[in-house]
Amino acid sequence: xxxxxxxxxxxxxxxxxxxxxxxxxxxxxxxxxxxxxxxxxxxxxxxxxxxxxxxxxxxxxxxxxxxxxxxxxxxxxxxxxxxxxxxxxxxxxxxxxxxxxxxxxxxxxxxxxxxxxxxxxxxxxxxxxxxxxxxxxxxxxxxxxxxxxxxxxxxxxxxxxxxxxxxxxxxxxxxxxxx
Length: 179
Prior knowledge:
With 179 residues, the protein is α+β, with helices and mostly antiparallel strands. The chain is built from 1 helix and 9 strands; from the N terminus they run αβββββββββ.
């Protein structure tokens, strides 16, 4: 085989390889553009931290977060008295449900419905520290302003520290705003 014949054969092989690779690369690029991003429109991470007074069954206070900014909050939790159980270290837990209402400085309301466990972690059984660890869903009909019609879910924790009446609130989740 002459040098010229060998070079022509090599060039033909490169053309064949290029003819196979280029369409594959184009198909892969096209496939990545087929992802529908419309469901992501209006999706927002919500995070709120707050402190106030009350108990795990009823508390109110002030908080800050995203996208809410500064808010006042009220939280309620009704225990399901038929579900009292030991937490394994001497304290007790009880199932229940309730609401958390966040009101922004301009009066817009984000209404959350929660369900979870209200636990007294005190191994001695007589303490007044307690925490509700639960999940929330947005109530789109009770929410107003920019949150009207919103949907979403996440976690909500409310706690009380001892007999001081100091309460805490933590919310972390995802909401979808109607734009």
